[in-house]
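Section 5: illustrative case.
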């Protein structure tokens, strides 16, 4: 049996915001993957651009992996900063990593 007495507890709002932040990061990571594919498909892809896109994608997924529901400041930052980029992407048909902020 699992001892749940010492597990952290979070409010419903904290959990919803946390899941929202994770989803926003997944969407941004997906857009970066799309941008990488588009760059790789060019007749002369830019090695520097590919490196930058891959580094940013790794950063996003690293942040996503380490995101904690109880870290309200970081969850809010992710939703605000990355959420803006995701929202902007829905306004345009091209990604370039969802209009870097």
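Designed sequence:
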């Amino acid at each position: 049996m699992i001892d749940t007495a010492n597990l952290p507890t979070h409010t419903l709002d904290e959990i919803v915001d946390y899941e929202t932040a994770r989803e926003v990061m997944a969407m941004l990571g997906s857009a970066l993957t799309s941008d990488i594919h588009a760059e790789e498909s060019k007749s002369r892809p830019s090695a520097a651009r590919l490196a930058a896109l891959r580094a940013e994608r790794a950063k996003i997924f690293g942040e996503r992996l380490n995101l904690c529901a109880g870290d309200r400041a970081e969850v809010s930052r992710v939703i605000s900063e990355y959420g803006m980029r995701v929202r902007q992407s829905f306004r345009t048909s091209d990604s370039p990593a969802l209009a870097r902020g």
